[in-house]
Please model this.
Amino acid sequence: MRVAKNRLAKIALEGKPCESITSLLTGMTVLTYSEDPVAAAKVAEDFAKDNKKFEILGGAMGENALDRAGVEAVSKMPSREELIASIVGCIGAPAANIAGAIGAPASNIASILSTIEDRAAA
Model:
């Protein structure tokens, strides 16, 4: 998070992908940013809920300028870490099921074999 003079912020944004937000730089301005595009939006949204004087005007995601609703939508997206955890969980689930079946008590395996035998006899 940075508090910056609008004139200096506009100069710094010249030629950058997010240059389209220079029109939002009026009055007292605070710029939030992060490597994870969702994190800055989440922090700003959470702060705005508790502080009524803090008003979100918009933002940028790469070359795309976002209005107030766009920033709110981005803040509701899962973060990079949450997405990675979800993917790892999906990949690890089949292995956990196989390990659970292999480690099942012998009585479970015996009852499954008995059921299969009964179906074959019928």
Q: What stands out?
A: The beta strands are 2-3, 30-31, 59-61, 64-66.
